[in-house]
Amino acid sequence: MGQEQRLAFLAADGVDDWRVAYCGPITRFATDSVPAGTVFATAVAALDVLTEHPPLIDVRPECVIVRIVRDLIDLDDGAADRARAVSAVARTHGLTPRPHRVQDVQVAIATSRPIDEVVPFWRAVLGYDDHVGDDLVDPRGRGPSVWFQPLDPDKPLRHAMHLDLAVPRELAPARLAAALETGGRLAFDREAPQYWTCADAAGNKVDLVTWPDLPVPEDAPASLEILKVARGGPAEAGADSSTGESDGATAPPEAAESAPASPTDAALAPRTPPLLAAGPAELERGEAMFMAFREASDLDDWPVVFWGPTAWFDTGSLARSAALAAELAALDGADRLHLDVRADGLAVRLARDFAELVETDLDLARRISEVAATFGARSDPSKVQTVQVAIASKAEAAVRPFWRELFAYAEHGDEDLVDLDGRGPSLWFQELPPEKPLRHAFHADVSVPRAIGRARVDAALRAGGRIAAGAEHHGWWTLADPAGNKVDVAIWADRDGPR
């Protein structure tokens, strides 16, 4: 991908429904149900213009998210034509675009060692593919991409990992202002408004990025002027003066007025109190269901990872994945399904996370497996995993509000923040005891089926990693790459015994 392809897409006619993030062009269409989402996905999958470049489609109870390519680097000259075709299908189905409700997260790993000494470890431990340059990407387009940042060997290495959050251009002012008002600070803004580097109270850093979504004119406002707008100054044309966010929709006014409000829409607006994904009652019920799935002996298609039981079914084409998704959406109790429709298969999660599971979901999982088998889609549990980011800090730092506001995530119990659309990695906040020194504030957690855990660890060790915290005995291994960055490979969530 050259810079010219990105700029050409942004300048193209008929792509107002779309924003550009690390994952390339992306949009979100509001829907009112999982079945409605699968009807739209089926129509998109049938487009001839997408045959050679199948998109990635995520069906959720309140929306469908579509990506034209897997990564920004893959952007090509025909991307705008494909985006227009998808938007045309959405209009025929009466769907309202909500492009300002999208974002994308990338994990950045800084190293002063040669990058080729570090990349093999992360490729192995995450099960990712090499991409152009030194990036790694999830082959199924579900987890965050990983970027390796070379450091000057003479520069002290403090925080070896940080997160990059790419948002639509119209969201950045409100997000930045909300994060700073929680006690965060602006660490670097000389490249604003292409990106800002922010830090929470403990010093953990995140880049708030808009550069993929718009060329920056020479007279772009400085970050302080943008903050002034976000905190109550005159809003730009087309922006909602109460939130600093533009609707960005191109649907007719009547479609926009009739579009259902979704929990995710609420998550992106300023809110008091914070949006809650799961409280004590939901967590208690979810814990019981979590154990019920772990103890079930007839659910081999459904390994249990951090956020609940998930299955993968090989289909061989985008059209077959969409067709299977539509059959599953017609089942009783399927109104909370999360379906990732891909060119080679379909990922199915029974709900956003384990706190939403109910007793009937055990039978629903069995029925889904039966339907998939009849459809001719083979289950492959080895393709299931979940990546989350762990942020360590001392109790007095109180860093969670900063990340909640910047990412527009919802609170999940006392330790986690989650993306209500189920796309971005969850954030787990690890409270360190006062006597423990804070070395690496970030680490990654990858939750995999028990059957492949040891093989994943062995592959990472062969790639230059090391066991950092003893052998597996609590259901996970802590590994370190050659530069000392840590990752936990967890199998504890999955049921015991051979798979």
Automatic annotation (TrEMBL):
Record field: compositional bias (Low complexity): 249-276
Region (Disordered): 233-276
InterPro entries, alphabetized: Glyas_Bleomycin-R_OHBP_Dase, Glyoxalase_6
Domain Glyoxalase-like: residue ranges: 114-209, 389-489
PANTHER family reported for this sequence: CONSERVED PROTEIN, HYPOTHETICAL FUSION PROTEIN
The protein's name: Glyoxalase-like domain-containing protein
Organism: Agromyces luteolus
